[in-house]
Structures are given as structure tokens and as C-alpha cells.
Amino acid sequence: MMSKNKKQSQNSETESPQIEPQEAVETSSEATETEEAVLLEPEDIHQQPTANKTSNKGVAVAILFALAAAGFSGWSYYQQQQALEAQQVVANKYQQSLDNAEQTIADFASQLQARNTQITTLNQQQQAIQQQQTQTLQQLAIAQDRIRLLTNQGKNEWLLEQAEYYLTLAQQKLLFEQDVQTSLALLEEADASINKMSDLRLNTIRESIANDRAHLLTLPKADTAGLINQLEALRSQLYNLEPDTLKLPDLAEQKRPEGKEWFDKLMETLGNLGDDWIRPHYHDQKVPNFLPQEHKGILVATLQLALLQTQAAVMNHDQKLFDSRIVVMQQLLKDFYRLNESAQAISDEITALSQQSVENTQEPIYLSSLNQLKQEKEARRLEWLNANSGVDTEEL
């Protein structure tokens, strides 16, 4: 190696005159590197290429890994985009199907509503036709009854109409007013009208009227109007009552001892005080109230309110409210009024009212004689039509 370097240096020296200045500079730098290389040890010369190869392999491997990671990331992103697009397509299909289903349901609902409207209209038309037919039949029956009453056969039929009127009025009195007495009187009038016809076929109706009268006689007779009038009369007597108020002594009218020494006055006062302490007090008597005379109107208004509530209980047949208001009025008289003759008379009358029963526990009463009379009238009408016109009575 040393001989070769020497030869090269000799050759370079021989050739140097022919080299240009720039080439000379390059030659000198190469010579310097050559001298440095000559100065390196043999071990360093062998290790340097190996390190360069190892570093180049690491860089290449890192680049390969980076490229692989970038490719895998790109492939994953592409797959995700493809999956998202597929999901979006499926979601759009489902949404379109849902929209179509909703539209179909809406169409069915509108069709159903139209059908229901048509059915309702048809039902209304059918009801109107039935009502018109019923009214026509009623008008026809009324006209036939009028014609029948004008004939020889119907001379006494007006008595049957009168009996029906009495029975209908008695039925309304029982249902709406619970007026048994008036209903009994109307039943008697109806029986008298039927009796004037002298028709044996009407004996069954008279028997039904007698049964209805017997049933009404067994019912409790609650005189609602009488109770209301009695309570109204009590209201006018309230101002005659005198409140039992406590009258306090006037201090200005009390007599004070004069001309006594202060010691005597003190001893007298102490003696009176001791008597008051030792004096027994009995609490079995009525405790006087402290209501002043000016509040008399409040007591009267309270009693009037209780009387009005009692009247409402009578009209509504509310026995519980009726009893509670009677107790309130008795307690007011006992606590706030002096029991003189007027108060005692009112208290006795209220006590008598407490024994009354205003509750309506019975079921609605229906007169059987009224239904039988209507059936008899219809049978007579059909018989007359069959006899005079030959019309089939089953069609009517």
C-alpha cells in the first residue's frame, strides 16, 4: 500500500505541470484525503463501510414500515367510507319504505274517515226517514181518531180520551213532584170518566186504577209544601227572640265608701278579696256568653240561614242535611237566647219538625192503568179501521 501511494504521488508530480489551477486544487484535496487514509489504522478502514450499510438498512426498513402503515391506513379509511356509504344507502331505503308506509296509512285513514262520514250521513238520513214515518203514522192515527169520534160509534170515546188525560197527568205528578194526594184525586176522576161509558170491556182498566189507588194509599205521605210553609213562618218569628247577653256593671254607678281611714279601707278590701277567693263556684249552670246587644242581627241572620238550608233539604229530600240544620237551630236557641215564651214556642216547633221524614226512598211509581188504557184505545182504533175501510190492521 505504501509503494502504491508513492507511485501515485510520483505520477502526480510528473503530471502536475500540465494541470490547470482548478484541477490543481482538486488534486491537492484528493492528496490530502489520501494522506488521511494512509494515516488510518487497518481496523477503522474495515469498520466504516459496515456501519454505513447498517444505517442504510434501518432507514430502508423504516421507510418500508411507514409506507406499509400509510397503505394500511388508507385501506382502512377506504373500507370505512365504503361501509358508511352502504349504511347510508340502507338507511335511505328504510326511510323511503317508512315514508311509503306512512303515506299508505294516511291514505287508508282518509278513506276510512270518508267511509265513516258516509255511514254517519246514511244513518242520519235513515233516522230522519224513520222519524218522518213515525210522525206520519201518528198524524194518521190522530186523524183516524178524530174521524172515529165523529161517527156514531165514537160518541162516548171522548170520555176515554178524558180518562187518558187524567191518568197521564197523575203519572207526571208522581214522577216529577212525588205528589201522591193530587195523583189520587186524578185517578178518581179517570175512574169516574170510564164509569160513564158503561162498557164492560173497560172493567179491567177500572180494576187497574183501583190497584194503583191502593198502592198510593200505602205510601208515606210527606207534606213537602206544608213543611216549607211551616219553616217560612218560623223565619218571621225570629225577631221576637231576645239574646241572652251578659250585662257588665257600670263602674261609675258603684258606691265607694267615703269618710273612712285608709287602714279601714284596706282591711275591708282585703276582707272582700278573701271572701271572693274562698267563695265556692258551681259550674253546672249555663255559662253566659259575652255577645253584646249590637250583634243581635248576626244571630238572626244565622238562624235564617239555617232555616233556608232546612227548606232546601226538604225540597231535595235530603234527610241528613235536614237533621243537621234542626240540631244547629236548637243549639243556637239554647246558647244565645233566653228561653221565654216566644223562644220556647219556637224551640217546641223545631223539636216537632225534627220528627219529620223528608227522605224519598221509594222507587219511581208507574201507573199500570195508563198502559192498559193506551192498549185499549189502540185496539178500538184498529177495530174501527178494519170495520170501515177493510185495511189490514197488522200493517198499521
Main attributes of the structure:
396 residues; mainly alpha; de novo design (two linked rop proteins); 12 helices; 75% helix; 0% strand; disordered C terminus
Tell me what you see in this structure.
This protein has helices spanning 2-15, 21-39, 42-150, 157-177, 180-195, 203-217, 224-236, 262-278, 296-316, 319-336, 341-353, 368-388. The chain has 396 residues and is mostly helical. It is flat and about 140 Å long. The termini are far apart.
Largest sheet: none
Residue-averaged pLDDT: 75
Q: What is the CATH topology of one domain?
A: de novo design (two linked rop proteins)
- How many strands? 0
Describe the protein's topology.
Blueprint: H1 2-15, H2 21-39, H3 42-150, H4 157-177, H5 180-195, H6 203-217, H7 224-236, H8 262-278, H9 296-316, H10 319-336, H11 341-353, H12 368-388
Helix pairs in contact: 1-2, 4-5, 4-12, 5-6, 6-12, 7-9, 9-10, 10-11
Summarize the structure.
This protein is mostly helical and 396 residues long. It has 12 helices and no strands. The longest helix is centred in the N-terminal third of the chain and has 109 residues, at 42-150.
